[in-house]
Input
Amino acid sequence: MKLTPYLHFKGNCREAFGYYADTFHAKIAFSVTFGESPFGTQTPPEMKNWIMHQRLEFGDNVLLGSDAPPERYRPPQGFSVTVLIEDAAEAERIFRRLADNGSVDMPFAQTFFAHRFGMCTDRFGQHWMINVEKPPQ
Output
């Protein structure tokens, strides 16, 4: 079994996943727009280029996402995507990149439970926690 985050966006999934691909040195392995889908002829013109489903792959990780139709979109709340990274310098690079033009909810720093840890909300409204874990005691 594997858990995989599925992120919903308000019409900017393509931009967000391009940013995440660059941030995580990942590749977009699959992408289909609403217009390309079997429902393409029923899709409103302003949504034809919106992402119906997208898959980002990096290492053993997968991140999925799509643009939500306007009447179904809800801003993310109550969860964060957590990234566990062993290399503190790489973790800090990723944290800074995700926080760029977003907001820092907790600065990236050493804590009692992690070598480094930080929380941010990216420019697309997604919540992230970047963690350089300490070994369990």
